[in-house]
Amino acid sequence: MGLADALAQDPVCGMDVDPQAGGQRSEHHGQTYHFCSQHCRAKFDADPTAYTDRSEDAHPAVKSAAVPAGDQVEYTC
What we know:
single chain; 4 strands; 2 helices; alpha+beta
């Protein structure tokens, strides 16, 4: 299993998060969600169904851009 397999996706911003790093997390309906920051966790905790409802109208889609190989990427939330 590679590193990508061990990552979780922040349901608020879509960033990949390492659940083993001991960062921000929250539970909703028996499932644990992992977050990149306290800000994203607070948004989730205020209205979890906005991020767990998978309908098209629930929340905006996270768009990602292709990054050329070798380029360094810095994520901010």
